[in-house]
């Protein structure tokens, strides 16, 4: 049988990105957390953590994390039937990976009421939409919002819709770089803004316009910072249309190619055996997100 105190220590170290913060969350000393990890490793016969900064789970550690995530959710279902088992009365916490642009636009409105009604706390992990699924594969999250359709083993995926992005720049940037008008060929020769090294949206956009090869770009791993740098004229960028409505209306930003948006699909991934709370959140998102996301063509 598993000793769930040991598994909770593993989950806390990974979720809190270190032994010190894990100890604070668990109400233990750092030494006690370390001893629990060592005891877990002794029982499974191999390491469950790679001791780097932050600590990362080994392959067996990932499988144990998958297990403890699902057990937490199933325990909540049992507590709703047998309230006496819940001796702490603490709210449930879901760890979810999602992309920064969703967090900066529609996510809060979509889940705010649900969290309040279900006494739910969220632990959000921000990842680019193209790589967020790695968090589920590692067993670090119970659900994931990303652009990948294929679920990991033991999970389901649901297409929620797509975020529509438009190429935008400041009027000063356009005047400086496109005095004769915007064209795809010239766009690839001007500085761009890219969210991070895993963000290939601009590459896909230019490829769809028939332009191949690299291009100059700034890296800005912040959704808010991204739009601020675009406003300041450092480069052109692909920005969610719902995030820049005010800037477009007042002329702070201008669309470069209004007839050439690009849609990024968003799939909701969740564990098959994630319990009633995760199923309820999935159903809620399925019903409500159409007011913020566009249908995928």
TrEMBL record:
InterPro entries: ArgP, LTTR, LysR_HTH_N, LysR_subst-bd, WH-like_DNA-bd_sf, WH_DNA-bd_sf. One of its GO terms (molecular function) is DNA-binding transcription factor activity. Residues 2-58 form the HTH lysR-type domain. Pfam families: HTH_1, LysR_substrate. It comes from the Bacteria. Keywords: DNA-binding, Transcription, Transcription regulation. NCBIfam families: argP, PRK03635.1, PRK13348.1. Belongs to the LysR transcriptional regulatory family. This is LysR family transcriptional regulator. It comes from Pseudomonas endophytica.
């Amino acid at each position: 049988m598993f000793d769930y105190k040991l598994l909770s220590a593993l989950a806390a170290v990974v979720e809190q990105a270190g032994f010190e913060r894990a100890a604070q969350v668990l109400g233990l000393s750092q030494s006690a957390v370390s001893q629990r990890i060592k005891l877990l490793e002794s029982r499974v016969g191999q390491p469950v953590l790679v001791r780097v900064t932050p600590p990362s789970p080994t392959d067996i550690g990932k499988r144990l994390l998958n297990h403890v995530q699902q057990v937490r959710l199933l325990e909540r279902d049992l507590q709703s039937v047998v309230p006496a088992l819940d001796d702490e009365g603490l709210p449930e916490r879901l760890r979810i990976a999602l992309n920064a642009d969703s967090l900066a636009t529609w996510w809060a409105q979509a889940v705010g009421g649900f969290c309040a009604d279900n006494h739910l706390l969220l632990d959000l992990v921000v990842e680019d939409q193209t790589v967020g699924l790695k968090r589920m594969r590692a067993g670090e999250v119970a659900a994931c919002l990303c652009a990948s359709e294929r679920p990991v083993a033991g999970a389901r995926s649901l297409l929620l819709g797509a975020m529509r992005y438009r190429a935008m720049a400041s009027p000063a940037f356009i005047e400086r770089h496109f005095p004769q008008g915007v064209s795809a060929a010239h766009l690839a020769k001007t500085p761009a803004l890219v969210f991070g090294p895993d963000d290939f949206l601009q590459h896909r956009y230019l490829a769809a316009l028939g332009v191949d090869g690299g291009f100059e770009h700034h890296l800005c791993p912040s959704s808010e910072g991204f739009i601020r740098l675009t406003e300041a004229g450092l480069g052109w960028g692909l920005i969610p249309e719902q995030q820049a409505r005010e800037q477009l209306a007042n002329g702070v930003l201008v669309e470069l190619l209004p007839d050439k948006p690009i849609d990024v699909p968003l799939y909701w991934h969740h564990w098959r055996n994630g319990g009633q709370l995760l199923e309820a959140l999935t159903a809620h998102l399925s019903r409500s997100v159409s007011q913020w996301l566009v249908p995928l063509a």
